[in-house]
Amino acid sequence: MRSKSTKGLFRVRNLIKTLRQKLDAGAPFSSQQLREAGVSNALAAKYVHSGWLERLDRGVYKFAGDPLERDPSFRFLEGRLDGLHVAGKSALARHGYMYHLAFNEVTRLWGESRAQLPDWVRERFDVQFYVRHLFDVSLPFEGRVCRLPDAPEGPLVSQPEVALLEMLSEVGVTEGVEESRQIMETMRRLRSGYLSKAISACRMVKAVRLCVHWAQEFKLDWADSALEAVPGHQRKGRWVGKMRDGTTLTLPEL
Question: pTM of the predicted model, to two decimals?
Fold first, then answer.
């Protein structure tokens, strides 16, 4: 006959097994998700004390002993950080434009509200987070991002045309000039109509000028339509900017 302690352990193991069937392995989960699975806050605290669950942050848990995976963690954060998505060079890599990069390359995440990534993310993943507002309301957030077809459960990723402008906006700040040029030279197949819409909505002169200037230099198929999309107020005069390394970047008027 089983003792009370044995019966209790058996029940706990069964509940943890049920939780594993309901919650994704390698993904963090919230206290609300636990409650929906039948685990109260008090019971969750008991499971943490017993070593079945690990508390990552206030109201955030994972299964003890399970390593967190990067993309499920980013997907979880989308509900907590406004406008969070994989952006710029990292998004281009996921769309296949930078196949030579290692999978563990630093991931660029952008958001739209002032916030910080939680410690449990920064401690586990090589990631950089920036708050940016590169586009106006004519290109809303929902139209700038997507789930990749081969990763429908993965995090939101910038559309390639948007990711290009995001990367170019960071040239001289977090991205190098030469590497960005090399990446853009490979981007010969873009949706010219969508890119034109993104250029029209882009607030940054540097990003727009670089996009058009390099497209013309590389004789990319969409260079003419990109030029036509540039708003009049972004065409006039030279653009001169100081890069992080102390050099000066000068872009001619369009």
Answer: 0.90
